[in-house]
Amino acid sequence: MKYFVVDAFAEELFKGNPAGVCILDKWIDDNLLQNIAFENNLSETAFFVKNNDQYELRWFTPETEIDLCGHATLASAFVIINFIDKNSNVVSFDTKSGI
Description:
Strand content: 25-35%
Number of helices: 2
CATH superfamily: Diaminopimelate Epimerase, Chain A, domain 1
Number of strands: 6
Low-confidence stretches: none
Shape: globular
Distance between the termini: 24 Å
C-alpha cells in the first residue's frame, strides 16, 4: 500500500496537523487497519478505497476507529488531487458520517 504523512493546515513541512493517509486497492481486515494506525502513532490515520466516482474513507487513531476527522479528510483529498487524480478538483468521500 502507499502511505503518506500530510501536514494539514500548513504551507511548509513539519508544521500544521499531521495525518497518515493509506491508499488501499480493497479493504483489508479491521485489525490490520488498527495495527497500522497504532504503528504509525499519529493522532489519526486515514484509509481509503476508490469506489466508482467516490472514495470510501475511514479514520483510525492508534487506539480505535473514529466516525469523523477533519484534518485527515483534508489530507486524503490532498493526496488524491496531487498524486492520484491530478485532473480532479472535486473529491467525494463516503464515510460513517455521510457523504
